[in-house]
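Worked Example 4.2. Read the sequence first, then its structure tokens.
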Amino acid sequence: MSPESSDRTGVGLTNALRSIDDWNARFSTAVVSSGTGILATHGDTHKVVRVASLTKLVTAWTVLIAVEEGAVSLSDPLGPPGATVAHLLCHAGGWDFDTTTVLARPGTKRIYSNTGYGALATHVGSATSIRFTDYMAEAVLAPLGMTASELRGSAARELPLECRRHGALRRRASATATVGPLNSDHGTPRAVPGPGWGASGMG
């Protein structure tokens, strides 16, 4: 990109972000980032907000680190009969959204489930004898400098996040691990670890 194009892009971002003030929202902030870092910001980017179901991204990442370290396995039975850790990561365990009602046979259908993510957190905590909150903090949050974040309840939806750290989380997560689609032949999820993910010395 030429300096002129870069300047035009910067001006365009600045103008677009200023338009957020016209929303008349009680609070608004924005962070525009790329693979190389933060391009522009608007508002109080140090404000800590609840990120609801984005919590699941951090929970899944934490579980995959536990897998990498050998504390748990993707094939561990967990959830409804026939379901595994991998199924629950993929929302393919068959559980209902917020209850333990079984709506489908594991591996046959994706059903968005907070229940599954709660079970994953409990499983990692039991397997490691470390509170899942602490495991997440050491494995994922601390390495990203997310010191203002701490899981405060459900591993499916109760993580507060400093606004300016969202971009760092997205960039790192996109370069780390992917839980793949259902295998059309066998109806089972495929989890594929990517390069450079994991933490050391969780003990």
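Now turn to a second chain, presented in exactly the same format:
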Amino acid sequence: METVYFLSVLILSSFAGLIGSLLGLGGGFIIVPGLNLLFNIPIHLAIATSFLGVLVTSNSSSLIYIKNRMTNIRLASILESGAIVGTIIGATISLSINKDLLSIIFSIALFYTAYNMNKKKNQAEHYNNKSILRNELKGEYFETSQNKIIKYSIKNIKK
């Protein structure tokens, strides 16, 4: 039985790692419900376990993206700064609320993310290039499928 359990968790985590690195989501959105619903692991423990696993896998996939020059290190540094504060606050709050409320918050976050991603893909993108200052979070990467360098700049920054 222990071998079946190990293999089942391994398959779940492999799938989460694949989808998470493919979409840039870290895999926790698959691991937490999987551990909770498939393996009956309490949601608090599932979140904590997932977070540690996602930390390791995110670092692994980040190395591949950095190697292929697909990352904007400056933007990532800004994101990291806020994420550190947010994770400390979020973990503290998570430990102080009951499992039902935590499950509801998790579900709402998943549905909200899915809704907004779907809504955004159906909208035309409009940018105001005057709002972008020179040298502000610009970058480039080599797109292998098009065999060319793609230049970009971060656009929707509130000033």
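Notes for the reader: The two ends are 57 Å apart (CA to CA). The helical segments are 2-23, 28-38, 43-67, 73-96, 99-121.
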